[in-house]
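User: Hi! I'm working on a homework problem where we have to compare a predicted structure to a textbook description. Could you give me the structure for the chain below?
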Amino acid sequence: MIGLLALAGFWSFFLVKKQPAPLPALDDQTYLVAPLENDVFLKNPGDSEFLKIISHQEIFLGSEIKTSATGRALLLYPNGSTTAIDKNSHLAISILDSKGNRSRLNLLFGGVLGRIQNVLGTDEFYEVQTQNSVATVRGTVLGVRFEEGKTLVLVLENRVEVIPIDPKTGQRIEEAALTVQEGEKTSINSAALPTAASPLRSETLQKNDLETDFIRENIDRETLEKPRVKEIFDRSKVPAPSVSPLPRFNDLVRKVLKETSQPTFTTRPLLTATPKPTETIKPIVTSTPTPIRTAPPTTVDKISPTPLPTAIPSTDTNQTDSPNSALPTPTPVLSRPVLESVVPSTITSLNKVDVIVNGRHLKGVRGVTINGIPVSFFALDELSIFASIPAGTAAGVYDIGVSLNSGEELKLPGALTIK
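Assistant: Happy to help. Predicted C-alpha cells:
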C-alpha cells in the first residue's frame, strides 16, 4: 500500500505543475469540491490565481470555482447536501457555515443543480444568488441557471422562494417574490424585472426542461430515486437519464484520513527502500523490483492531436527524383486557431463580469481585447479563455479579439453586448 501511494506521488510530480495545498485533517466544518469532468479550477482565499484541480480539495468562505466548456464539479457539505456545478460556470462561496446548513452561492454565470438536506433552524438556509435573483430553500432539489441577464429556477422537490434583485442597485424586490412549488419553474429577466403590479409567475416543468443537458448530466442517482422526482419525470413522459453515483462526503473524508494517516518518509519517492510484502518468487526478477510505471492518468492538462503520417523515405540510392520513385510527402492538415462564441454574450456594465471565450486550438494566448482595448484574461486551455470585462464599460456591441504568441490575430465580430 505504501509503495502504491509513493508511486502515485512520483507520477503526480511530473504530471501536475501546480496544485492547491493538500487537505488537512477533516472535521464537520470541512467543505469539499470534487472534479467530475475536466477542466475545473479553484481559487481559495489568499491564492493569486486559479489552479486546476485533479482531485477533491477543501473550499472556504470566499473560494471561487470555475469550469471550462468541458468541466463539471461537485460541492459536498458535511450535512450530506451536494451541488453539481455545470460546464461553463463560475461561482463564489459567499456564506458557508454550520455543516452546510447556512450556505450562499453567488452564481456569476452558468448553472448549479443542488440536492439540499432539510435545514430546520430559523437561521439556517441554502441560497443561490445571481445578478438579478436569489433562490432560498430549506430542503429541496433545485436547478438554477444564469446567462445573458436571465435566471431560470427549476424545482424538482419541495418548494423554493425566489426573490428578484435589481442588478443596478442590488436591492431585493420583496413585493414581487414567488414561492415555486415542485414540478414548476420561473424566470427573471434583467431587461424586464418583475414588480408588485407584475410579480413573478411560475409554470409547470415541460418535457423539454427535463431533457436538457443541464438536467441529464448533473442530476444524480439518489435524486432520481426520490419518489416525487420520479413522479415528475413520469408525468412528463421523460425517461430517467442513466447516471452514475456521485462521490459522497463521508467516502472522501475516509479516503483523505486514510491517506494522511500513512507514515511520513524522508527519502525521495523512488521506492528504493520500500518494504516488500510477502510475495511469490518470480524467476525473471533478479534484482530489487522497480515499480511499474503505468500510463499517466487522464487528467493531463492538454490533449495532443493525433500525429500526422509521414512519408517513408526510400532506401534505394539509385532512384531519381521522379514522381514514381518515392512515396509522395503528404500535405499536412494544419489545425488553425478559431474563435467560436462568448458566454454569456450579453452582460450589464454595473459590475466587473467574467465571460468565457470559447474556440479551438487557442495555443499561446498573449492578449484579449474588446474593440481593441486590452482586458485581463486567464487561458484555461486551448478551448476556453476567461476574460474580465471591467465595471463601467460603456454600453454597446463589442468585437472580441485574441492575440496568440504565433502572431495570429483572431476576431469574433459583435460577440459581446453590454447594456
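For your comparison, note the following. Confidence is low (pLDDT under 50) at residues 1-18, 21-27, 260-325. Residues 2-15 form the longest helix (14 residues). Good luck with the assignment!
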